[in-house]
């Protein structure tokens, strides 16, 4: 393998996981997705890894939430909604809740159910990235 092929492979391979191959929300469906009241153990802040991203979630008891993640110099915040064991993200992705407890939240993307992302309760956002900590603390004090 020559060096150009190696560079091309290294640049393209991380993008392969970005292609959604299964059910997701189409344009306009996020606003129509009706959130439901959250199970009480899910309300609050959670932090974990989603691939290379340090990700944090903030959930209100009414089923509205924010997903925030950071990697390198990239910081992103997206709205989320919860209903019946499923999380809808404003970019069209959906996550299925595999397990939830007072301390752990395990989710998997609907388009790749073999993947699982583990979040832990992070009430004070001590494990969140500096960007996400600031954004989510602001959201939790002002509301979504």
What does this structure look like?
The protein has 144 residues and is an alpha+beta fold. The protein is 19% helix and 38% strand. An eight-stranded antiparallel β-barrel has the order 1-2-3-4-5-6-7-8. The termini are far apart. 26% of the residues are buried. Residues 4-23 have low confidence and may be disordered.
Label the structural class: alpha+beta
User: How far apart, in Å, are the first and last alpha carbons?
Assistant: 51 Å
What Rg do the Cα atoms give?
16 Å
Content of β-strand:
35-45%
How would you characterize the largest beta sheet? 8 strands, antiparallel, barrel
How many distinct beta strands?
8
Please trace the helix and strand order, writing H or E for each element: HHEEEEEEEEH
Strand order of the largest sheet: 1-2-3-4-5-6-7-8
- Helical content band: 10-25%
Indicate the mean pLDDT: 84
**What's the number of helices?**
3
List segments where confidence is low: pLDDT < 50 over at least 5 consecutive residues.
4-23
- Outline, from the CA principal axes? globular
Topology:
Blueprint: H1 3-12, H2 29-32, E1 44-50, E2 53-59, E3 64-71, E4 74-83, E5 86-89, E6 94-100, E7 104-109, E8 117-121, H3 130-142
Antiparallel strand pairs: 1-2, 1-8, 2-3, 3-4, 4-5, 5-6, 6-7, 7-8
């Amino acid at each position: 393998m020559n060096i150009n092929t190696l560079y091309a492979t290294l640049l393209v391979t991380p993008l392969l996981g970005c292609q959604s191959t299964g059910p997701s929300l189409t344009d306009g469906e996020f606003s129509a997705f009706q959130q439901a009241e959250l199970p009480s153990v899910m309300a609050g802040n959670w932090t974990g890894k989603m691939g290379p991203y340090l990700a944090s979630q903030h959930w209100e008891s009414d089923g509205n939430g924010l997903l925030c993640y950071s990697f390198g110099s990239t910081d992103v915040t997206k709205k989320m909604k919860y209903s019946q064991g499923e999380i809808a993200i404003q970019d069209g992705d959906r996550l299925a809740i595999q397990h939830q407890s007072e301390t752990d939240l395990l989710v998997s993307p609907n388009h790749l159910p073999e993947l699982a992302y583990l979040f832990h309760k992070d009430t004070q956002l001590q494990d969140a990235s500096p960007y996400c900590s600031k954004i989510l603390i602001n959201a939790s004090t002002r509301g979504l």
